[in-house]
Amino acid sequence: MTASPIGRKWLQVETEAAGTGYQAHLVLAELPPAVSVDSADVWAQLEGLPFPVDVTADLRVVPAKKARAQVQRKKRELLDQAEQYGAQPTGMPHSLPDAAEDLAEQDARMARTSVEVEVQSVTVLTVWGSDAATCDARARELSAALAGADYRVIRPIGMQEDLFALGLPGTVRAAKLNQFTQHQLSEDWAACGALTLSKVGDPAGVMIGHDLDSGTIRPVLLNPADAPQVNASASSAVVGDLGSGKSVLEKLVTAGVVDRGGRAIVIDRTPIREWVAFAQSATAGRCQVIDAARAELSIDPLRVFGGPVGAHYALSYLTLQLGVGAMSAAGAVLHHAVEEVSGGLEPSMAKVLDVLAALAEGSGTPRADAAATMVDLLRIVRGNPLAAMVFDPDLPPVTLDGDLGADMVVVTTAGLTLPPKEAFADVEVLRQQPLEALIGRAVLYVIAAIARQAAFTEPGRFCLVALDECYWLTSSTEGSALVHEILHDGRKHGAGVFLGAHDVDELGKDAGLIAYRFLSRTTDQARAAKGLRFLGLDGDDEDLTRLVTTGLSPVGQAGREGEMLLRDPRMQVGRIKVVVPPVARLKKSIFTTPGRPPAAAALRGTS
Q: Taking the model in full, what pTM does it have?
């Protein structure tokens, strides 16, 4: 800083609305001969500075034919210089061979294609402050940051007004600024990430793909396990059409959480048990499968939890299965039977049925009649194979620290059916549903209770509850309650939920609490608009709607699979491409494209 106006390297700007401010304009004077991947998109990385930076780029595009002629002329000039230096005792400077090599590379790259052009650019970076000292300090910090990546910027004395004017619409570049022209091929200029914001995702975590909004391949990282540590929600959701990559993304994140030391509990409803195959491949030796239809383990709440917790879940299950009110006469009988069994030795749901049968023997009393009716109904339920996981005392019980303590637990519900969503609005309609649907609803309640209890028992170790195609779960009161509880209380217990859906409405009424939001291809315009609003974008914007309906993972276009929009907890929105790493245990079963072997699906499609 100096008192002389000639030595001042900033502009003082006065406006009626904003008062007096100070601007410093820096111009790019030198590019590095080569850059690393970390610093290639240097202009995009300016967004990471603690103060704003404006970028003005004045471009002149030169066709390849003309640019090649200029390059060849420069090569001849270098040869002449080399001959002149050759006659001197000091010899030729070391910079000449390097310059010749750079020109040869540029010539070869332009010769490969006729569409390549040369970009001749003058780039101005502007910082500002409310006082001259702040403005000057920011300019120095910016210059130092760029110098660390071998980019040299200067503040030329006497040219601040010319650099300022370059950013005004319709301004012609001052002749004196031509000395700062940088020559790059269009590919290299685009790789600088000029005028782009590519910051989306977390600073560290699982690599799920790369950013499509910048000229370079920037990794997109996700770290939901760290969200509770920074007092944020760890829950995620992906919405989109069938085959748009939702399941692949969910599996990729789930495996990443497990590989980084966390846990995962998955409720898999698919008939092909796709999550079972994925867990056994991706986390071999560290997973546990609980099959609700094959009944190889018991989920009897009295045996799994025991004590008051087990009694609570057992009573809730029975009232739900029988359709009786907890405060009714029948509910009182059930409460008595459950309390008696839970306080005895080796409690189980089978013993509850025995106690009810004993109460029914004293016929003629209201309690006995209620008990007799419930015994008849529960015997019908117990005779169905779908209820064996609850009533068969010979099955080994699921253990929270054993089976559910595995790194990845998959609970398959294939074979279980649920009443339609409309039935939950009318008690009489619900009672008329098929027995399989009523059993499925009650068993789902127990599964949800076990998943919730397992996810919340170890707050020091993050647990992700993955619920793919969640419409079947959120359509029921019991499934919605599980999602509701994890969304509201998961952060306190080191847990989060990952929901996959075809429509935003399927996520439930608490969708606003979801932190990581993905939107994949959605061809229906109404659903696409809802998905955009879910991301916090304008659902009525025609360009955004066109992007979601036709511009993300276009059907049949190989190499475009996995394109999505992401909004992270920091409210950053970006376009990404999900990429499965070349790890055999992950790629073996992560894709579910029908009709193709896993290897072919890995190359051509997503699920």
A: 0.71
